[in-house]
Amino acid sequence: MIIEWASLVCLALGGLLSMAGGLGLHRFPDFYSRLHAAGLSDTLCVALIMLGLAFQAGLTLVSVKLFLIFAFLYFTNPTASYCLGHAAWRSGLKPYRRGQES
């Protein structure tokens, strides 16, 4: 029963964080702040969702596979965010400054 509640809490928090990241993508003014919102929320919401699913699976091969998926995403999500930001900077995209015309 406690494991089911822990799973429910992790899955709910992961879903809420995913929606907050989507809201950040919609509301923030420029590419860099949107990239920041998406990169942070995506990594943490995947961690919470995978943890909730691992609670549901128990100590089985499924939970090991979920951990391997999380480990892969833990390294690739921040790397992809860095590469996107670095490519945008090198191509000349400047960050938004307050008072600047869009």
From TrEMBL:
Keywords on record: Membrane, Transmembrane, Transmembrane helix
Protein's name according to its UniProt entry: Monovalent cation/H(+) antiporter subunit G
Membrane-crossing segments per the record: 46-75
GO molecular function: sodium:proton antiporter activity
Annotated Pfam families: PhaG_MnhG_YufB
Species whose genome carries this gene: Bowmanella dokdonensis
